Amino acid sequence: MRKGSKVDNRKTNIDFSSISLSGLEGIVTTGFGDAYTFISIPTYQKELNIVLGTNPYPGTLNLIVDENKAKIFLSKLKKRYIKGFKGKSKTKNLSKQILSYGGVTYYLVWIRAKVKSKYKTLRCAIIVPKKTRHPKNIIEVISTHCIRERFKLNDGDIVILTMKNPSTKVHGFFKPQN
């Protein structure tokens, strides 16, 4: 886990029932820092480029969500896949090893956050790697931009994921696959 993370055991007792906006609400949290490594792998990068329409930002925004609400929200979205693959990796002694990389399920969504008293939106995707260290109440969101920087988000801030664009002002562009 990254230094300074406020969520040590990745489980929280947050009452999501008090948040009454449509979509799936999530609370920003610091992740493990693994996404950078995986998103930088050429095969994942190529596939995510197809998903996003351009190169992905090499990292994800991690959100604490209510597991039950997340299941319901995801069940309403079209599920898409990036297949797993095998690849070569150099180890410390410079010998090449064949590694197996897991597949990724993804869902195209919009993220909405309040920035300086105005709501802004960005097209993005929830990614669910087949191999992950995160518990089920943590989801990862990927975009062509660093979402944290774009919306000036800090740990503890609340964002909303929606199925449709809740605004006409869109700050991220890509063509979703059919």
Description:
With 178 residues, the chain is α+β, with helices and mostly antiparallel strands. It has one domain: Elongation Factor Tu (Ef-tu), domain 3, CATH 2.40.30. The protein is 16% helix and 33% strand. It contains 4 helices and 9 strands, in the order βααβαββββββαβ. The strands form 2 sheets. Strands 1-2-8-7-6-9 form a 6-stranded antiparallel barrel. β7 and β8 form a beta hairpin. The protein starts with 23 loop residues before the first strand and ends in a 16-residue tail after the last strand.
Keywords:
4 helices, six-stranded antiparallel beta barrel, 178 residues, two-stranded antiparallel sheet, Elongation Factor Tu (Ef-tu), domain 3, globular, disordered C terminus
Outline of this structure?
The protein is an alpha+beta fold.
**Uncertain stretches:** 1-21, 168-178
Average pLDDT, rounded to a whole number, is 77
End-to-end C-alpha gap: 36 Å
Strand order of the largest sheet: 1-2-8-7-6-9
Q: DSSP strand (E) fraction?
A: 25-35%
Task: Find the CATH topology.
Answer: Elongation Factor Tu (Ef-tu), domain 3
What portion of residues is helical? Answer: 10-25%
Largest sheet: 6 strands, antiparallel, barrel
Annotated CATH architecture: Beta Barrel
What is the domain tally? Answer: 1
Rough shape? globular
Count of individual helical segments: 4
CATH class equals: Mainly Beta
Structural class: alpha+beta
Helix and strand sequence: EHHEHEEEEEEHE
**CATH superfamily name?**
Riboflavin kinase-like
The radius of gyration over CA amounts to 16 Å
Count of distinct strands: 9
